[in-house]
Design goal:
eleven-stranded parallel sheet; mainly beta; about 350 residues; Pectate Lyase C-like; 1 helix; about 0% helix
Length: about 350
């Protein structure tokens, strides 16, 4: 790719013929950040917008040369920040999209983002970046419906898959994740916003040394909900926190206490096995004003990576039930007919 064409954009034009098909067999690599001429509007590098019927397949590689961006520490246009790190590959305001077979490497920020789209099918992808690379989510889903991500391997420095506001009917299965921060719903409710996620199914996922396994994270002061979520057949290989609900998400540790919260309900954890890197393998930290409701733990077996140590659970304002064998026992999960 030449330095004169640093941002690739494909949008619907009058008379376009569908479906649009691309077969990528080559290696695409951008040049230096300083060569970008995007007038500070570097939202993404490769983008497809306003399309109905798109197929991108092949064995090619998209390498974002992220190491040249990561050292800039530029997430937004703050003082002295001339370039915002771009997402590597974006699908937006589109429907009936299929992506398969590609490799994505070292994106400046998120590798792949699906925004305001429906009927997106991604499979047999490989995404990789160093475990210490900042904000390099593998796949981020935002305001999108009917999204499937199957048979994909993700190694990155942030969430392997993150599911943001306005997303529903999300099916994720047969995923290998690690290094990375696991599969996350959220964060939701930042700056008091009303945000929602529902009808998410995550199945047949292996986590390798991730900081989290399956996680739901929300900010204090937010509104909305995360509900009707199922995590099943999950294997943890020394993840630091295999199961996490965190209604007090605050990555910078300087958040004031607030009473409102995004409501979390109808969440099922079933057939989750493996090892935890630390003692607390199950953490359910919920708000007093908006407790977590209808949390189900069924057939859980999480042991300490160190066979000489135990695993335990921590709960705060979490209501639900246990079914089958559950280890650690999660006695802190409160059964209450009112919830």
């Amino acid at each position: 790719m030449s330095e004169q064409q640093e941002v690739v954009q494909v949008e619907e034009e009058e008379g376009s013929q569908y479906p649009i098909q691309y077969r990528l067999q080559i290696r695409i690599i951008p040049s230096e950040p300083s060569a970008w001429e995007c007038k500070r509007n570097c939202h993404h590098w490769i983008g497809f917008k306003n399309l109905d019927g798109l197929s991108i397949q092949g064995s090619g590689t998209i390498n974002g040369q992220g190491s040249k961006w990561w050292k800039l520490y530029c997430k937004d246009y703050n003082t002295g920040c001339q370039l915002r790190k771009p997402t590597g590959f974006l699908i937006a305001n589109s429907k009936n999209v299929e992506i398969s077979g590609l490799t994505f490497e070292d994106s400046p920020k998120m590798h792949i983002a699906f925004e305001s789209s429906t009927s997106i099918h991604a499979s047999h992808l490989r995404i990789k970046a160093p475990g210490n690379s900042p904000n390099t989510d593998g796949i981020h889903i935002q305001r999108s419906t009917n999204v499937t991500i199957h048979n994909t391997t993700i190694q990155t420095g942030d969430d392997c898959i993150s599911i943001g506001d306005g997303s529903k009917y999300i099916d994720i299965r047969n995923i290998e994740c690690g290094p990375g921060h696991g599969i996350s719903i959220g964060s939701l409710g930042i700056m008091g916003k009303t945000e929602t996620v529902e009808f998410v199914h995550v199945k047949n996922v292996s986590f390798y040394g991730t900081t989290n396994g399956v996680r739901i994270k929300t900010w204090q002061g937010g509104h909305g909900y995360a509900r009707n979520i199922k995590f099943e057949r999950i294997t943890s290989y020394a993840s630091t926190r295999p199961i996490v609900i965190d209604q007090f998400y605050c990555p910078h540790k300087h958040c004031k206490d607030q009473t409102s919260a995004v409501e979390i309900s109808n969440v099922v954890y079933e057939e989750i096995h493996g090892t935890s890197h630390k003692e607390i393998a199950v953490q359910l930290s919920c708000s007093e004003s908006t407790p977590c409701k209808n949390i189900t733990m069924k057939n859980i077996n999480l042991r300490n990576e160190d066979q000489n140590d135990k695993t335990s659970s921590h709960c705060l304002n979490a209501h639900g039930l246990r079914n089958g064998r559950v280890h650690p026992n999660v006695h802190c999960l409160r059964f209450d007919d009112n919830f």
